[in-house]
Structure formats: C-alpha cells, structure tokens
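Researcher: Structure for this, please.
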Amino acid sequence: MKVKKSVILAAGKGKRMGDLTTDIPKPMLKIGDKPILEHIVEGLISAGISEIFIITGYQAESIENYFGTGSKWDAEFTFGRQEIPNGTGKAPEAARNWVEKSPFLLTYGDILVHPNTYSKMVNRYEKGDTQGIVTITKGDDITKGGIVLFDQDRRFTEVIEKPSHETIVELKKSGRLQDDLAAWYNAGIYVFEPRIFEHTEKLSLSPRGEYELTDAFNQLAASGDHLSVVETEGQWVDVRDPEVLRSLGGA
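Model: Predicted structure, token format:
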C-alpha cells in the first residue's frame, strides 16, 4: 500500500526549553522564519504525504490555529489531543480511527531531518517486503540514546533505551551487537501499519512512569512483524534544548 498519511506527535511543552515554552509548545518555536513543526510538515508534503494528523496537548490552540485545514500547504490537516500527558506510547492512539487501515508515517514534532529521509522511508516500505520502518542515525555515545539492534539483512530486532556499559558488553558477548553496528541510534521517525495500536493499547508503565512508544514497536517486532531499518539522510537533529535551537538559527 502507498503511504499517504502521517501522524505527528506535538503534544508536549518541552520543559528543557525553559521560559521559551511558557506560552507556546516546543514544536511552534521558530527556526528561521518558520516553526519547527512547519519545517516537518513541508518535508512530509514534499514526499507526497498530504494527509497529516497532528496530535496536540499543551497550548493546543496555537498549533491548531496556525495550521488550520492545511489549505495553505495544499494538504489536509486533522487534529486530535492527548488529554493525559502519559507518554509517547499512548499519544498515537488519538489518531487511531483516522488512520483506519492505512500505513502511516509517524514522527515527533521536534525531530528535523532532510526531506529526502521521508521519501526514502516511503520508498522502502512500498517495496512490499516489510511491515514497517524504523529510522536510525549514527552517534558517538550510545549510552545517551536508544540503541537499535538489527541483523545483517537490516531487519530490526530491538531498541534499548540508554544502555549501560555493562549492557553493551553483554550484547556484544551474546552476538546481538557487532562492533560496527554499535553507534546506531533510534532516530524517532517510523512507518507503521495499524497493528501498532494493538500493542500501544496493551502497554504497561515504564520505570519513568510513562507509556513508551519504543516498548510498543519492540513488541510488534517480537510478534513477528518485519520492520526494516533505514538510515536518515543528511543531518539529524533532535531540537531538545535552547542550545540546539540557537545552533539552528532559532530564538
């Protein structure tokens, strides 16, 4: 099936941004003359994805009023709200009925990539030999992010959040992690089929007291779905704090 729909998770305040998000959510902070979220939207549209569902929460009206119906971008926007801020694992469920039976690209509202990444993901999925896509990006210290494990055929097996040194040693000892694969992070952009919701609805709270999206797609892969890993194109940026924002030309 063709990937024509996208869901963007944009419900959070962005606490690490401090006073910058007192009145607006982090996805609406500007880089250049556009909000972070608009850069993402334009990238998705350039990849042929014109049906976009934006999940809002904190200061939801600022996002909903800015983007409206999507006519300005020759796209169709729909909104849903994550009423309880209980984690990324439950957030996508606001779009469940809208997704219906379609595959969809899922991304966070603060992850920036070259637009070619979206096209690359879509093209890989539409080959028809995989049930989903997990993007990866290279990093220097895998203890600071989610390390993605995959086999020689680039089939995803698991993501482990912030693995300890001891965990990494054990993974290598068991053969689940090779030295040349040690620096691949979860890049936070995915293509899923609606089956992902069967796993989000069964999630348990993580040690952080939240429902984690990574737990859901780990379960999806463990259940037998073939998820392929795709490397992001160009620079990958998690706009996580004011320092990163300023480096990109933001406030």
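Researcher: Any notable elements?
Model: The chain has eight helices and 13 strands. The mean pLDDT is 92.
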